[in-house]
Amino acid sequence: MKAGYGKAGKQTTLSNFFTATTTTNYNYLWDTDSEGKVIPSKPSGKGAPPQAINMMGNLDKPEPAPLAALNFKVPEAFKVAVKTYAAQQGKSMNRILQEAFEAYRHTVN
């Protein structure tokens, strides 16, 4: 079958005007607001990573020590107070109790 021929026979263009091709760059026509002003393009990517000086030390984790159960009962109000404080500080209840014991030990000695 020859180019330009299909089921409907020979195909002809509808007008004498050229049609836009994929190589034609008309992006400036669509990158405008309602007043015809060009909208600046958004920067791509996330930018440069932060300097080592500006990084927080939140990725440093101590070596995990083997854990042992410390089983004791406390009043419900004390448990709620410790749990609430731990959540506000973004720490676990275990960590809060460890820090409290260390602070107590340093004040007694």
Give an overview of the whole structure.
Helix 2 packs across helix 3. The longest helix has 16 residues, at 93-108. The protein is elongated, with a radius of gyration of 35 Å. Strands 1-2 form a two-stranded antiparallel ribbon. The chain is built from 3 helices and 2 strands. The mean pLDDT is 76. By secondary structure, it is mainly α. It has a domain at 72-109.
Q: Radius of gyration from the CA trace?
A: 35 Å
Q: Give the terminus-to-terminus CA distance.
A: 99 Å
Beta-strand content estimate: under 5%
Q: Which descriptor suits the 3D outline?
A: elongated
What is the element string, with H for helices and E for strands? EEHHH
Helix content: 25-40%
Low-pLDDT segments: none
SS elements, strand count: 2
For the largest sheet, list the strands in their spatial order. Answer: 1-2
**SS class:** mainly alpha
Continuous helix count: 3
Give the biggest sheet: 2 strands, antiparallel
What average pLDDT do the residues reach?
A: 76
Short description:
With 109 residues, the chain is mainly α. It is 31% helix and 4% strand.
Descriptive keywords:
109 residues, mainly alpha, two-stranded antiparallel sheet, 31% helix, elongated
List the helices and strands and how they pair.
Layout: E1 5-6, E2 9-10, H1 27-30, H2 76-89, H3 93-108
Antiparallel strand pairs: 1-2
